[in-house]
Amino acid sequence: MAHWKVLQLAAPVFFALAGAAAAQEVTIETARGRVELPEIPERIVVLDIAAADTLAALGVQPAGVPANMYVSYLDGLQAKAASAGTLFEPDYEAIAMLAPDLIVAGGRSSTQVAPLSEIAPAIDMTIWGTDLTVQALARLRDYGRLTGREAQAADLEAAFNARLEDARAAVAGRGDALIVMTNGPRVSAYGAHSRFGWLHQALELPEAVPDLDAQTHGEAVSFEFIAAADPDWLIVVDRALALGQSNQAAKVTLDNALVAGTTAWKTGQVIYLNPANVYVAGGGIQSMTATLEEIRSGFAQGVKAGG
Q: Where is the secretion signal located (predicted)?
C-alpha cells in the first residue's frame, strides 16, 4: 500500500491505491469533502488530538502521534506510538519511516495536509464551529467506518447522548452562564457562537451576555465586564494550564473584588473545567463526554475544580 495517487473529481476527493484490489471500500466525510478509501487502513498516523481521542475510544492504536498530547488520558496510547513531530511541525522523515496507510490531520495540523499527502493519503478531520456536538458525532461515525468499528461507534454515541441529556437536565432552570478563558492575567469571554459555544447550544444554557463577538480567541474583556454581566454561573478555562505553562493560574486571576461581587462567585457557582480537554482535545468523544460530566457535576455541587 506504499504506492498511491490522488484523483480529484469536482468537489469530492478520491484516494486510490494503484495496483491494489479494494478489499473493503470506505467512504467518509472530511473537512474538505467526501473521501473514498479503497480499504480499511491498518497503519494510521494521527496529528490531531481530537482524532486521537476518538480513535482511542474505538480501540485503535495509531502508529504515530504528536510528541506532546497535552491530555493525560491519552498517555497509554502515546506510549505505544512513535513520535510524529508536533501539531504545527510534523516530523516528515519519521512519519515516512512509519509507512502509514493513512495520515489524519486536523485543527492545528490542518495546514500540513498537502505536504503530508506526499508521504501517504492524508485527510483533514478538523472539527470547528458552534455545532461541535454534531460534528464530533459525525466524526465518530466516520472513524467507526474508517476502522471497521461501527458497532463500537454506535455504543459511544449512545453513551455520549445519555451524558448530554444528564447535563442538560442539570443546567435546566439554573440561570445563565458566562464562559471565560484566562491566559495568565488576561481574560476572554466566549458566547454561543464561539469555539466553546457548544456548551451553550447543546445544553440550552442561557448566556449571561448575548451576542458576544464570535472570535477564535474570544472577546477580550475586563473584570468590570464580568462584574456588569453578573452571571449566575462562571465557567472557566485556564489556557496556560492546558498547555502546561507556568503563567498565573485562573483562580488567581479571577480572585479580585469585581469578580467576587458576582452572583456566581458569591454563591460558589464557578466551574473550572479541565482545560486541556476542552481547549486542546475539543471535539474528541472522550474529552467532550468528560466535559459534560464536569458541567453536570458542577451544577450539582456548586463548585467543580478541573485540571
A: 1-23
Q: Which of 90, 81, 98 is nearest to 1 (CA)?
A: 98
CA distance 271 to 248: 18
Do the Cβ atoms of 55 and 103 come closer than 8 Å? no
Rounded-to-integer distance, Cα 100 and Cα 172, Å: 46
**Range from 1-10, 153-162, 247-256 carrying the lowest mean pLDDT:** 1-10
Q: Name residue 131's beta-bridge partners.
A: none
Distance, in Å, from the CA atom of 190 to the CA atom of 196, rounded to the nearest integer, reads 7
For residue 218, the 8-state DSSP code is -
| Residues 6, 285, 160, 205, CA torsion sign | negative
Q: Would you state the torsion angle of the CA atoms of residues 80, 133, 194, 207, taken in this order, to the nearest 10 degrees?
A: -130
Look at residue 23 in the predicted model and tell me its pLDDT. Answer: 57
Q: Evaluate whether 131 touches 195 at the Cβ level (below 8 Å).
A: no
What are 17-28's pLDDT values in tens digits? 333 334 578 999
Look up the pTM and report it: 0.88
Q: Where are the alpha helices (DSSP H) in the chain?
A: 49-57, 75-79, 92-97, 113-116, 132-147, 150-171, 198-203, 223-229, 239-242, 250-253, 257-260, 263-266, 275, 285-301
Average the pLDDT over 94-108 and give the result. Answer: 97
Q: Are 233 and 176 within 8 A, CB to CB?
A: yes
Q: Indicate if the alpha-carbon torsion angle 199, 204, 208, 209 is positive or negative.
A: positive
At position 261, the amino acid (one-letter code) is G
